[in-house]
Design brief:
This protein has 9 helices and 5 strands; from the N terminus they run ααααβαβαβαβαβα. It is an alpha/beta fold. The chain is globular and about 60 Å long.
């Protein structure tokens, strides 16, 4: 018989939104550690991401999975913040946004959520973000890591333009920059001048932790 943990992963991966939310709430009400519930969400999102890469799922499934993730995240956050085991300090600051000319935010939202629950102070400045806005936000927020997101190929030029502007503003040596989104690889990283690229939210968290010496 399938355990509740296995069932929650399956429900999210199979897009059974309502049943997944009910089960997640029941598990939390029953005393299951909210971090365990989030780990199950991450496991489910890995499955969703793999199915997307293999052409089994498309953008609507990614959107729905992201919505489920957001709702379960909203359930767990208050519990995590109330926990005596909650980290007393943030690992570091991460500024994230989708570069100008690109309106996609699903992947960015998932990365934002994953960074948040992994102990980072994250500021999400949205989609279609002009270069000047990135510069302003970096000056104000003083992030350790900047994440540039973009799904469209035209985003590559926007990423390159943004990174060049950060360098021109004299801030390039004070932070690390990673890019992520569709069709990103080492060639694109080198073209844009980023420090790293990520294929998924786990990569983004792993690199950000590395930047903070974790």
């Amino acid at each position: 018989m399938m355990s509740d943990k296995e069932k929650l992963v399956e429900l999210i991966a199979e897009m059974e939104e309502e049943d997944a939310l009910v089960l997640a709430q029941e598990m939390l009400d029953g005393g299951v550690d909210p971090l365990v519930v989030l780990d199950l969400c991450r496991e489910a999102m890995d499955i969703v991401g793999k199915r997307f890469e293999e052409g089994e799922y498309f953008l609507p499934e990614l959107i729905l999975a992201g919505e489920v993730l957001d709702q379960i995240g909203a359930m767990t956050k208050p519990l995590i913040q109330q926990s005596p085991d909650s980290p007393s300090r943030k690992l570091g600051r991460v500024l994230i946004g989708t570069v100008h000319g690109d309106l996609h935010d699903i992947g960015k939202n998932i990365v934002t959520f994953m960074l948040d629950i992994n102990g980072f102070e994250v500021k999400d400045i949205g989609i279609d973000v002009p270069v000047a806005r990135f510069i302003e936000e970096i000056k104000a927020f003083q992030p350790n890591v900047v994440c540039l997101s973009g799904f469209l190929t035209l985003a590559f030029d926007s990423m390159k333009e943004t990174i060049e502007a950060i360098e021109a503003a004299g801030m390039r040596d004070k932070l690390k920059i990673q890019i992520g989104g569709g069709q990103i690889d080492e060639t694109i990283r080198a073209y844009t001048g980023a420090d790293a690229f990520g294929l998924n939210a786990v990569d983004a968290v792993t690199y950000s932790r590395k930047c903070m010496g974790e």
